[in-house]
Amino acid sequence: MVEAHSVLGEQVRMPVEIRHADACSALFRADARAARVLLADTGLTPVTLAGQAIVSLAFVRYVDGDLGPYHEFAFSLMAQQPGRPKSSGAYIHWLPVNQSFTCEAGQSIWGFPKLMADIDITPDGRGHRCEVRVDGQFVLSMRVGDGIPMPSSAGGASIDAYTYRGASLRRTPWVMNPGRVSGRPGGTHLELGDHPVSEQLRALGLPRRALFSSRIGALRMTFGDAATVLPTREGR
User: Fold this and answer.
1) Beta strands 227-228; 168-172: pairing state
2) Nearest-10 crossing angle of helices 196-203, 32-39
3) Strand ranges (E), the chain
4) Three-class DSSP labels, 110-122
5) Do the domain assignments include residue 234?
6) Spatial CA neighbour of 4 closest among 66, 59, 71
7) Does residue 236 lie in a domain region?
8) Are 223 and 15 within 8 A, CB to CB?
9) Is residue 233 part of a domain?
10) What is the count of structural domains for the chain?
11) What is the pTM of this model?
12) Is residue 20 part of a domain?
């Protein structure tokens, strides 16, 4: 493991700590065939539930952490390595952010598909709303309504993140410590634009009713260094 990475002249020590953030997320059922298309180059296969893939959409407001304050939107698919049923994780397909330092760090350290975007996260009545634009083009908006209070353990278990960049699949340990968690079935309204990522979401069958939506009012996280994943015999 590398102890530190140089990013734009600064040293980023491992593991990276996020001391305070808040997040809204939603899980959706999606077309498994379209999910396999998005995963085709990675060597991963979608995790399915009743024959359908699982898509996660989330927006996060990072307040205090090693990469500075910023906003982020995450589009990921639950996936696993062929022949390794205990290898399930979140494949991060698209990860726009609104600050350049975290964009460079995410790309160079972990291979995250970060890019610069306008990300507006605001309270919206009894919920929170996020709107994402890339180069002025509307990609999507997502509103997550308030849910009922839940145990902190329901805010999302720690999970490994998969990334694919430069023909290399990497896996990053991602530890989450959520607090002030609320959630409910449904609870999310999604609107899509005409950006290529919007069309990918449509191909997956979105927008549709979310399986479950959640809000984490106090979130701490740790990201370890990324490790290259060797292909399984089945995936070769």
Assistant:
1) antiparallel
2) 140
3) 4-7, 10-13, 16-30, 45-46, 48-49, 52-65, 70-80, 89-97, 114-116, 118-123, 127-134, 137-145, 148-150, 161-165, 168-172, 174-184, 188-192, 212-223, 227-228
4) HCCCEEECEEEEE
5) no
6) 66
7) no
8) yes
9) no
10) 1
11) 0.94
12) yes
Please give the DSSP secondary-structure letter assigned to residue 154: G
Can you read off the two tokens belonging to residue 84?
A: 């390794």
- The secondary structure of 71-96 as a DSSP string is EEEEEEEEEE-TT-TT--EEEEEEEE
Phi, psi (5° rounding) for residue 44?
-90, 160
Question: What distance in Å separates the CA atoms of residue 188 and residue 128, rounded to the nearest whole number?
Answer: 10
- Residues of the chain predicted below pLDDT 70: 1, 153-157, 232-236
Domain containing 128 — which CATH number? Answer: 2.40.400.10
- Asked whether the beta carbons of 199 and 34 are under 8 A apart, the reply is no
Q: Which one, of 95, 63, 61, 62, lies nearest residue 76 by Cα?
A: 95
- pLDDT at residue number 236: 45
Task: Give the range of the structural domain holding residue 41, as residue numbers without chain letter.
Answer: 4-223
Q: What is the pLDDT of residues 165-197, one digit of tens each?
A: 988 999 999 999 999 999 999 999 999 999 999
Whole-angstrom distance, CA of residue 119 vs CA of residue 141: 10
137-145 β-sheet, strand order: 118-123, 127-134, 137-145, 188-192
For the stretch 176-180, contacts whose Cβ atoms lie closer than 8 Å and that sit 24 or more positions apart, written own/partner, are 176/219, 176/220, 176/221, 177/152, 177/219, 177/220, 177/221, 178/152, 178/216, 178/218, 178/219, 178/220, 179/152, 179/155, 179/216, 179/217, 179/218, 179/219, 179/220, 180/152, 180/216, 180/217, 180/218
